Structure prediction request, 246 residues.
Amino acid sequence: MSTATSPRVLNHPAREDIRLGPVLHALSDPVRLRIVRAMARGAGEEFSCSYFALPVTKSTCTHHFRVLRESGVLRQTYQGTAKMNSLRRADLDALFPGLLDSVLAAADAQADRLGEELPAQGG
Amino acid sequence: MSTATSPRVLNHPAREDIRLGPVLHALSDPVRLRIVRAMARGAGEEFSCSYFALPVTKSTCTHHFRVLRESGVLRQTYQGTAKMNSLRRADLDALFPGLLDSVLAAADAQADRLGEELPAQGG
Prediction:
C-alpha cells in the first residue's frame, strides 16, 4: 500500500546542466516569479512552502516548486516531512551573471508601475 | 473566397502594456531566443523572416514571430507582402533596464560553454 509520503529523492540539475531556456520559462510565470522574489529578499535562507501565501491550491503550488527545482532555480530538501526551499543564486549568478538580478529588478519595477505588492507572507 | 494574404493588421502591445511574464516566456524558447540574438546583432535594422535560417517549418516560424510580437519583444510591419521585424529594444530597455542585455549575455555565455553557434544566416 502506498503512503502519503512524497518520494524522498528530489531531482536537481547539476550546475553545468542548468539551461537558460528552462530558467526563463520557470521565471515567466507570475506565481513562480512571486516565489523567487520572496526568496530573494531572504538571501540564503530556507523557506517551507507554507511561508509563501500563494493564491493557488496546494497541488498547483507543488507543481510550481517542481518547475523551479527542475529548471535549477531553487533547491528543495527534506527536513523531516517538510520540503525546504532555497534559491540557487550562486549557481545562477555563476552561469548567467546579472540575469537573476535584472529579472528581479524588472519584476520590482513592474510591480511599482502597476501598484502591485508581494502577498503577505504566511506564518 | 479567402486569399493567401495574411491579415494586414498586426497587433502589438503598447509599451505600457508589455509585461515581464510574456517577455520571459517569449525568450525562453531556443528558436525564439536565436531570432532575438540575431536581431540584437543588427541593432535597429529590420529583417525579413527569411533572414533567419531556422530549423523549423514556415508555420512554426510564423508562430514564433507571433509570440515575440504579441509579447512586445519585436515589431512586425508589412513592406509589400513581406513582414519585416525589428527588436523593440527601446521599449524593453525603458521598462526593464538591463534585462534584455543580461538575457543576451547569458545566451552568449551558454552558447560558448556548449560550443553552439548561431545558425548561418539565410540569403
